[in-house]
Amino acid sequence: MIASPVGRLSSPNAVQMSKTLLALILSPVRLLQTSLATLGFLLSLPAIQAQEVQDEKRPPAMVNMSPGVYQLGKMRLDKGARSLSLPATVNMEDGPIEYLLAAAHGSSHESLLCTDVHASDIHFAILLLGAKGASVTNPQTGPPLSVARIDSDSLRNAPKPQGDSIQIIVKWREANQEKTAHIEDWLFNSDTQKAAERGTWIYSGSMLLGSTFLAQAEGNLAAVVLNSSALINNPRSGNNNDKIWFVHKDAVARQGSVVELTISLSSPSP
After folding, report:
1. Residue 11 to residue 19: CA distance in whole angstroms
2. Are 166 and 84 within 8 A, CB to CB?
3. Is a pLDDT exceeding 50 seen at residue 29?
4. Which of 223, 214, 12 is nearest to 99 (CA)?
5. Which residue in 85, 169, 83, 170 sits closest to 128, CA to CA?
6. Phi then psi for 61, rounded to 5 degrees?
């Protein structure tokens, strides 16, 4: 998807920095592959709403940590692995959920994890890795699912999520030991009475509604129950049922634990 982030990259200096980052990070071949998505991303910057611009800070600085590995604010971008790592906090140890990851101003009361990394920054970094998303800039018919009233009928008729296949891994420390898990292991499906099936997620990339980048505005970054405004969506059976998803209380890290969430593109973009 080609979508504009809200506010954070709207100054001329930020646009120049974005072009510089592309030259530093991407090989000539990758630059050609991603140029259209990134060009759309940059050209949409002047349309950002004034209030949202005031609310945002300057874009994060970029630091080359090692060959192909860059620190972008609180995120780490690995060109070779085609992965992005970012910090999050375990927000729930038990109970029903609709989101895997949300910002504090999003639906944090029903999200497994929370982060203070901005959706616009995540989207920019994922574009740099070559993702294309769902290639939808604006909803074609009616409001997106998160803006419209969400009920069982709307979820039942929601379209299958489109975009890039990604893997999500979580790392954390417990009792002075580093642990790693597939994020699906922390989700429980009450229909199957098992952890969520391991596998890919879909980087759909959210969308613009007018000049508003919905993932940034709404703060809902990764959805377990379908949400067209989220950056990431769940492709599993039952993704249109908001009654069956829970925190897997026997597997999840303690509430308040700081974790590292790594998003990896599953295969090179064509």
Report:
1. 13
2. no
3. no
4. 223
5. 83
6. -75, 155
What is the separation, in whole angstroms, between the first and last Cα of the chain?
A: 15
Q: Cβ atoms within 10 A of the Cβ of 98, count?
A: 21
Residue with tokens 């294309």: 132
**Backbone φ and ψ of 197, nearest 5°:** -65, 130
Q: Distance (Å, rounded) from C-alpha 244 to C-alpha 189? A: 6
Is the separation of the CB atoms in 191 and 64 below 8 Å? no
Retrieve residue 239's tokens.
């993704």
Strands 62-66 and 69-72, bridge-based pairing = antiparallel
pLDDT, tens digit, for every residue of 165-218?
A: 999 999 999 999 999 999 999 999 999 999 999 999 999 999 888 889 999 999
Q: Using alpha carbons only, what angle is made at residue 185 by residues 128 and 71, rounded to the nearest 5 degrees?
A: 25
Q: CA angle at residue 206 from 200 to 212, to 5 degrees? A: 165
CA angle (147, 149, 153) in 5-degree steps: 125
pTM of the model: 0.77
Please state the domain extents for the chain.
12-265
